[in-house]
Every structure is written in structure tokens, then in C-alpha cells.
Amino acid sequence: MSDVCREFGSRTYHGLPELDYPFHDRDALVTNCGRICVYRKKINISTVMAGQKLGIKEVDDGIWLSFMHYDLGYIDLEQRALQPIDNPFGTRLSPMS
User: Fold this and answer.
1) Which residues span the domain enclosing 25?
2) Domain tally, the chain
């Protein structure tokens, strides 16, 4: 569990619970500079995700990334970048749905 704990009015925020991705091949921790390492390649994700664990699932057309219950998109290993889906918080379109 996160050590982050902040007071917001009468409620206390304790951070995210431990994230688990049982239907993924593995998970990856986003570094402070916003990257993950896949097949010895550094992939830029976002510094907003720093310290968070992402689920990684290898599918026919690439490597799919998820955060919590949301599909983010796939990794283009050639360009070393995340190719996001249009709206990760909309309708689920991933091959794992």
C-alpha cells in the first residue's frame, strides 16, 4: 500500500491499493521519469503514472497495457512508445474484455 496519506476535509486518502493483474502476462512499474522497460527497451508512458504498476499482456498485434480496470493502449516496440486508445475510460475494446 502507498505511504501517501493526505487529509481532505473529514476523509483521509491512503493511496491506491496494491494492484494485481491476474489475467496479464506480467506487470511493470513505471519509473519516476515515466518509463517502463520491455524487452530491454525503454518505453515512454507518462510521468503522471510514475510509481504505478501496469499490467502487460502480449497479444497478436503487440503488447497491451492496462492500469487498474482500464485499457490504455498498446506498445509499439519499434517506436518505443505507447499508442493510446482514443478513450481509455470509455467502452472496453481490448482483446482481454
Assistant:
1) 18-84
2) 1
Q: Please give the residue that has the higher pLDDT: either 94 or 60.
A: 60
For a pLDDT cut of 70, what percent of the chain falls above it?
Answer: 79
> Given a cut of 80, is residue 46 above it in pLDDT?
yes
Q: What phi, psi does 47 have (nearest 5°)?
A: -70, -20
Q: What is the pLDDT of residue 36?
A: 94
Grid cell in block for residue 1: 500500500
* Degrees, nearest 5: CA angle 80-31-89: 70
Q: Are 95 and 55 in contact (CB under 8 A)?
A: no
User: Quick check: is 59 in a domain?
Assistant: yes
Helix (H, G, I), strand (E, B) or coil at 88: coil
Is residue 96 included in any domain, yes or no?
A: no
In a domain, 41, yes or no: yes
Write down the pTM of the prediction: 0.71
